[in-house]
Sequence to fold (324 residues):
Amino acid sequence: MVVDSLLDHQESVPLTYLQTLNVDLARDVKLLVASHWHDDHIKGLAQLYERCSAADIAFSVVMLKDEFHAYFVEQEPNGKAKSGIKEIKRISALRGGRKPPLLASAHKILWRTAGAEVEALSPSAQDLADFLQALATRQSLKRKFAEAAMPLGRNDVSVVLALRVGDESVLLGADLEQRSHQHRGWNAILNSAARHPTKSSSFKIPHHGSKNAHNSNVWTQMLTPEPLSLVAPWNRGSKLPTVADGQRILSATPRAFITNSYLQRKIKLDIAAVRNTIKESEIALTGAPLQLGHVRARKRPGETSWRVSLSGDAVHLQDFKYAS
Ligand SMILES: [Zn+2]
Fold:
């Protein structure tokens, strides 16, 4: 299974990684998941979908109007669309002859074999009901079907996954956020009577470590004590994780790793004359380019703890240099 993708030198990073492991892409990759349609999660997914020709593709059943339109209505890639939407169109254009997408929502088993399964834990029944309501309303008003839209953001309807192998479970938190509503976001997962009892020993921390995705009950009810935790930083706009986010995560578990050691900073020039000269010369100043990092966690059946290896710029969260 591959969840999400990103590009490095125009190549899908998980695709390159699977090739270094000599995985038979056309045979052994069973499932691709787009957790949600934000650019930082799906670039290169169409490359993967093309090469992993036996794989199902799964994404949230609850879609916003842009991706709904791009996937189901207008499939030809166009030059003007945002890159995330272009990616959806590429995937949609490749779908001829392949199985229809698996539309993920809470409690849907996306893949299962003897002793192993992948279950979607979100979006919630509430999100799905609201989405269908929105579709029905737009239809009755004779608006374009494709204009149906959720009143929520993409993170709110992202697909959280539980991967269970034997007695082991891994919780992949996507970018799902915390909402006060008891039937949305992490509350809906926690409150579900059908929640699987197995606690996860490894956690992909949701939404880049942001406090808006934190729910302490997830740590007590869905995870084993001090689980292996993995964070991917966010470098645009408000930088994530913050110092407080890092402290919160490290107080919950000492075994936390992050895929980059620092966040790229804008270079600030305090002296106006220098600033102006540089501007007039049309020179762009940026920090050192970020290098790609990789946290790899492996565990064989019967092993008690995760074996973690770090490569590229990945570090223990303790060693992360926060944006000032
Ligand atoms: Zn994200």
Q: What stands out?
A: The chain has a mean pLDDT of 88. Residues 38, 40-41, 175, 208 surround zinc ion (CB under 6 Å). The first helix runs from residue 13 to 20.
